[in-house]
Predict the 3D structure of the following.
Amino acid sequence: MKRKWLIFTFLFLSGYIFLITITFVYNNSLTKDFNEFSTSLENNKYSELVDSKGNMIVYNQEKYEAWVDLGFMKSRNDFKKNKYLLNQRFSDDEIETIKFLKWGTYDTYEEAYIDLGILNKYARIYPVTHRVYNELFSLDLLIGKTNRTTYGIEPFLLENGILNSQKTISLSIDLKMQQIAYEELLNTVKKESAEGGIVVVMESKTGKIKSSVSLYPWNIAYMGYIEPGSTLKPLLISTALDEHIINPNDKFYSGYEYYPTGKKNFKVTESQGYGMGEVGLRETLTYSSNIAIAQIMEKILEEFSNQWLYQKLLTYGFGKKTGIEFKGEINGVVPYPDDWYEITPFQIALGQGIGITPIQLISAFNVIPNDGKYVKPTFLEVKEISERQVISEPTAKIVKEWLSYTVTEGTARKAYKEGLRIGGKTGTAQKAESGIGYIEGSYYSLFVGFYPVVDPIYTAVVVIDNPKEEFYGGEVAAPVLTNIFYRYSKEKESSAFDNQKVFYQDIMPDLIGYPITEAHNILLNLGIKEKNLIITGNGNTVVSQSVPPYKYLSDQEVIQLHTID
C-alpha cells in the first residue's frame, strides 16, 4: 500500500512539474514576443491642447488595445483551428503574413478580455493613450498630428520639448472666432468660385494668433508665399516718411501712364485705367495709386541704394521665418540686390517680384496699428511678448489714420458697415508660376486690415485665390474681414460665452466629466431629440459617450451617455 502511494505521489509531482514547465515555456515565449512588440504602441501622454478659453482642441483618451500574436499561435500549431475565429473579422490576406494582429480598441480592460474570448491565451491587452483631435473649421491643417504630419503646431511643440512639459497647453486660438472666420471665408470662396482662401487674425499688441483658417489641402499661411501687391504700399510710405524722404503734405501727379526708369522698359498705370490727377499720400493709399508709389520709390532711390532697400524689407520680417510655433514654416523669397534689374525696385513698389508668406504679411503690416512696433506672432496664450521698433510711433499713427479712409471712401468701400470702424489696405496680385511667369486673368485678392481704427485690438489678413466673379481685393477679400469682426463683436455682446465652453450646432460635444443633468441639457439645447438620448449607469457624472467628440451628428443618431458616481 505504501509503495502504491509513493508511485502515485511521484507520478503526480512529475506531471505537475511538467505542466508548470510547459506553461512557463509557453508563457515565456509569448511574453518575450509581446515585450518586444509593446514598445511600439502609442502610449505617450503628451500635453492636451486647449484654446484661449479652455475649449478642447486635442485631448488624451485612455483606451485598451487587444493584440493577438499570430506568430506564437502558428508556432503552437493552433493557427488552423482558430482561423475561423480570425476570419470573422479579418480576411486571409490580412492575417497570413503578419505576426501581430490588432483585435480591437476598447474603453475598458474587461471589454477587451470578453471580446478576445478563447484567443486570450495568444493575446495581450495594453493600456494606450490615443490623441483625439478637433478637426473642425480647418483646425487639422493648423494643429497637425504628432508622428503623422510634417507640419503644424503640435509637431513643432514636440520637436522643441514643449508638448510633454505640462498637462495642458493653452493655445492663443479662439474657437469661436475660428468658427466665424471659417464660415465667412467658405461662403466667399463658394460665392466667388475661388480656388481657395486663407484668413489669419492676430491680436495687434501681443501677436497672439486668434484664428487661422486655410481652405487648401495644405496651409499656405505658413507654407506658401504670394506677392503682396498693393498691401505693401503702406509699409513703403511709412519707411519713406520715417527717413524724411517724403513729407506728409507732399503731392504727386497721376497721369495716364508713367515710366519711372525714363525708358520704355517698365510702364506703370493705374488699375482704374485712367489718371487721378494730383494726389497726396492719403489719397495714394485710399485709392491705391500705382503711379504715385512709383514716384515715391524714385525718391527713395535718389537717396539710398538697392542694398538699403533690401535691408528695410528684411527689417519688416520678409525673407525669413517669423519663428511662429508651426513646423513647416518657410522663409519666403526676397532676391538679393545682386540679382536685381533696373526695374526691380519699381516692381517691389507695386508689390511684385518678392514672395512673402501671409503670416509675414500680417506681422509686417501690424507695425502700423501697433504704434510702429513689430511683434513676433505666436500660437501660445502664455508667452512673453517679443517686439522691436521698426518705424516711429508718430509715423505709424498718421499712416493708420490714412488707412481708415480706404474703407469709408476708397478701394474697400464694400467692407464698410455702420458702427464698425475698420482700417486697412486692399491688394490684387497677379498669380505667377515658375517657368511660366504671370498668368493672364488669374489673381490673388488681398485685404490686410485692423479693427477698430482707434486703439486696434486685431490685425488680420484675407487672401482669396483666383475668384471668378470679382477679383479686386476691395470687392472680394475686404468684406470677409468686416463680416468676421461684425459677427464676433455681436456674439460677444449678446452672450456670455467668454467664460463658458463653446458648443456647436450639429457637432457632438465632449461631455466626459460633466454632471449628467448639465450634459443632458446641453444636448437638448443643441437640438438633439429626447428620444435619441440614452443614459446608462446610476451615477451623476458622464464617463463615456457613444458618439466621439467633434463628430458631425445626423438627425436620427442615437447618443448614449454612461454615468458613474
Observations:
- Confidence is low (pLDDT under 50) at residues 22-27.
- Residues 50 and 57 are 5 Å apart (CA to CA).
- The chain has three domains: 48-170, 175-494, 516-564.
